[in-house]
Amino acid sequence: MDKHPNDNPDTYPRLGRMMMWVDKPGSANKIFWALAIFCGLLFLADFAYEKHGHFDVEYIPGFYGIYGFVMFTALILLAKGLRVLIKRPEDYYGDKAVDREDYPEAELDKVNYDD
Amino acid sequence: MIDQIPTAFLFFAAALVLFALPNGKIRAAFLLLVPVLAAYQIWMLEAGVHSQVGFFGFTLDLMRVDKLSRVFALIFAIAAFLSNLYAWHVRDTVQQVAALLYAGSAIGAVFAGDLITLFFYWEGTAIASVFLIWARRTEGAYNTGMRYLVIQIGSGVVLLAGAALVYRETGTIAFEAMTLGSVGTWLIFLSFGVKAAFPLLHNWLQDSYPAATVTGTVILSAFTTKLAIYALARGFAGTEILIYIGAIMTLFPIFFAEIENDLRRVLAYSLNNQLGFMVVGIGIGTEMALNGTAAHAFAHILYKSLLFMSVGAVLYRTGTSKASELGGLYRTMPLTAILCLVGAASISAFPLFSGFVTKSLIIDQTAGAHYQIIWAILVFASAGVLSHSGIKIPFFTFFAHDSGMRPKEAPIHMLLAMGIIAFLCIGIGVYPDPLYALLPYEVEFHPYTAGHVITQLQLLAFALLAFGVLMRTGIHPPEIRAINLDVDWSYRRLFPALLSRISAVVLFVWQSVTRFGHRHKNNIIDRLYHSHGPEGRMAQVWPTGSMVLWIAILLGVTLIVNFMS
């Protein structure tokens, strides 16, 4: 589908217009810092209950948070490394592969929101 | 009357009746009615073995009903209903029939009480499902379907071989718990492993699911792999090797999913990862772990369908499911976006969503059995799920950069199907007791303790924070138009290349040998010709001289023989 020719945000579905807050300048920042504060609170919450872990590491304060942050970052970095090794052009398996074909139009119902 | 017929036959009969109905809303409504009837029947069935038939001296148990088979059959019927609702607009008879036969075969296999019945339905799922891929009607889909079919049918053949060996050994074809040891049980294990997408046997899944039609992929995602999970839970519960296989299954797909561009293939990798959790549960093999596997399969079918449906709706409206081409669609598809987010939250196991109350059963049992490394892998893999299914799918489709596409919201029947599933995902998450009551064993587990909720939120929130940091620093890999190699490279590139090399070598050797033979023969002929030919030395005295000589020799020999005897 090509870019929409006469794009007018005022005519989007109401719900869509409400969600456009996320694209306002500064919103991404707000979301990020709100998340950071939420993470801080969760870290502190670790001291507020009695732990019943199966392993010693679970008793480290904020263990799950630290593990999640570190492993997520490691995952992304390793995946980037993997991409260097295994990335190939889309026509690698020739033009008779699904990745190269357009989806058959007959199965689709491409409609713009204001059509 | 309805409880006398095996559930699978309901679907098969319906596939016949379908042809008598006009292709339109009546058929679509009929396609919804069949799974409802089936679900009602499954619900009302009493435990025990129903419908036995004789078959070449064997007794086949077509309906072995207990709590384990019932919960799987029930979710299969629910999945059939929801995917048929999603496919309300489809007027392609091939897909309609395939959907019925596929769901029927899957339910039949779950109720199979013996290995022969299991084999028939096992192959039934393979044959019926491939038409959902071929229904795309492109050359690429045809090729993919062939690869899929070879592997799926192969799995059934291995199953049959295993069943025959087990029968020779034990004298029974009953499908009960087995222990790995003999060749027969290993073959059955391997056959289940192919359909369950064990590591290295997995790639048919990521190869074929993105190649099916918009609605076909949704249907495919529900049955085959979860049938294999059921079969493993029935046959190999407590087999320790499954713990390690499952852990690897949760681990490796998250890396591939992270860099894959086609979002339906991302979901196929994600599916593979979710199967890993279930396989670990089967390997642990305690009653609670098996409960976890069954519960997770139930919840997983729902939220995975929801995710495939939301990406499918985008494909239906825009013609592409590639992350590099999409973005910013929330503006005009806000409902699909929100429903997708519910699926993403469910698979990521946020508290109050279904994944949380089912996956924690498995992880808790793994920790309880003191598999510390496996536990650490599962927790890591949970963060990985968040990365590709929780963030990548909704973020790069509906948010991120604006692609400029302004597609219309998904059609109402798609929204309805997704809405029902989203309701179930949240319903199970908030109030898991009805699901727990369906599980094979008594459940003594409280997912909503302070510890569970806080640790899970910590894991997810900090992982999200890491995503935020990586995006802001530009380290997060961008979505690009490309494909990635996986095991399918071996049979799409390596083996064909090897084969053509080998055939070239064989051809060369053959030609050399025959050429050498020819040359040798020609030499002999040439030499004989040289001496005996019309121009040859012998030919100078050929007509009379040599004749006299030979007669003289012959006479001499005769004389000697006579004299000697």
Largest sheet of chain A: none
Q: Ranges of chain B with pLDDT <50 over ≥5 residues?
A: none
Helix content of chain B: over 70%
Number of strands of chain A: 1
Distance between the termini of chain B: 100 Å
Largest sheet of chain B: 2 strands, antiparallel
Radius of gyration of chain B: 32 Å
Structural shape of chain B? elongated
Helix count, DSSP H or I runs of 4 or more residues of chain B: 21
Q: What order do the SSEs of chain A take from the amino end to the carboxyl end, as H and E? A: HHHE
Oligomer description: heterodimer
Shape by Cα distribution of chain A: flat
Question: What is the mean pLDDT of chain A?
Answer: 91
Q: What structural class should be given to the helix and strand makeup of chain B?
A: mainly alpha
Instruction: Indicate the proportion of strand residues of chain B.
Output: under 5%
Strand order of the largest sheet of chain B: 1-2
Q: Overall pLDDT of chain B, averaged?
A: 94
